[in-house]
Design goal:
Number of strands: 5
Bound molecules: D-ribose
Distance between the termini: 26 Å
Helix content: 40-55%
Radius of gyration: 14 Å
Structural class: alpha/beta
Strand order of the largest sheet: 2-1-3-5-4
Number of helices: 6
Strand content: 15-25%
Length: 150
């Protein structure tokens, strides 16, 4: 996964900037959909921008961050075709790739420390989907639920 869409609300601007800096230093291409200030915004608006980029193929995957990661993950998961995993540690990050083939990662800037967040991002970006038949079957059912698969 080389091209990453990223978006956040005002609670997560500092964390997003750190993550973008890290990813660009590592050679990833980052599509930053904001917000880039601390002025209050609504997380569904920003989740949608990053989720749309993933669904339409402009990005290989996405990262969304709000205060807890909860609101912005709920919002991202309402976009058909998105499987966004809210991760608090590297085990969550590994399993949401291995089991859910998550195409988006959500984190909470007020609930997860910066170093843990960086480790989560690395694990998320480098762990492949397991390709297990059981997981493929469940992911297809998710696609039928949101209408992204017939
Ligand atoms: C914003 O104050 C906060 O509600 C938001 O960042 C997030 O935590 C919602 O789930």
């Amino acid at each position: 996964m080389k091209k990453i869409a990223i978006a956040n609300d005002h609670a997560a601007t500092e964390m997003k900037k750190e993550i973008v800096k890290m990813l660009e230093a590592e050679g990833y291409e980052v599509l930053n959909f904001g917000t880039d200030t601390n002025d209050s915004v609504d997380y569904p608006d920003y989740a949608k921008k990053a989720a749309d980029a993933v669904v339409n193929g402009d990005a290989d995957c996405g990262i969304v961050i709000c205060g807890t990661g909860i609101g912005i993950s709920i919002a991202a998961n309402k976009v058909p075709g998105i499987r966004c995993g809210l991760c608090k540690d590297v085990t969550d990050a590994r399993l949401t790739r291995e089991h859910n083939d998550a195409n988006m990662l959500a984190m909470g800037a007020r609930t997860t420390g910066m170093e843990t967040a960086k480790d989560i991002v690395h694990t998320y970006l480098t762990t492949p989907f397991s390709q297990g038949a059981n997981h493929i079957r469940r992911i297809e059912k998710l696609g039928k639920l949101d209408g992204s698969i017939q």
